[in-house]
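User: Can you predict the 3D structure for this chain?
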Amino acid sequence: MQSPPDTEVPFTASQRPQPPYARAGRRDTADTNAPAPVRRVSRPLYTAAERRRRDATIWTIVQGILAPLQFVVFLVSLVLVCRFLATGAGEQAAVLSIVLKTAILYVIMVTGAIWEKVVFGRYLLAPAFFWEDMVSFAVIALHTAYLAALLAGWGSAHAQMAIALAAYGLYAVNAAQFLLKLRRARLEGPAPNAATDAAPNATLGAAPSAAAFEGAG
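Assistant: Here is the predicted structure, written as structure tokens:
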């Protein structure tokens, strides 16, 4: 008995089997045509030139002295204000402490703006500290509002102290901003010494620096 002759089954183009190397080559071509992932590189807090200017200027040391001084006054004043609001005692001491805190804030605002000009080439709102400056403006505005209410006799003593507490709350937020920037500066650059990493900005003066506190107003 004779076996039936072999017959060739036709394949369409899509059905025709491909050798392994052909399939691999097609896959490699597709992979090379895929868009490469985008890697976002953030700008360092200080360029090499800015870091050198920061380390060389006397205004960095000035900020490193004024910032912790303001923070200590802030803590004492906060206790005095809360004591007055809770007991009604010590109004005069609380008022004097707020005025002293505001005066130091104004000094740091001016010296910090000079520091920012020396390091970044502009008095305020340098890109590295833009949002810190913006919050600092609000801190200064609230402190100034307290002084205006005190001098003009607007509102009761409790209402005026409430303005001071709002200013202090925003001040604490601003201090945290500068603490985070200090941490970033330490991670990006060489190990700072006690005097050179003291002030990253113009208005806060609340956040600790390498030696004491970093910030501006």
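The two ends are 106 Å apart (CA to CA). Residues 191-216 have pLDDT under 50 and may be disordered.
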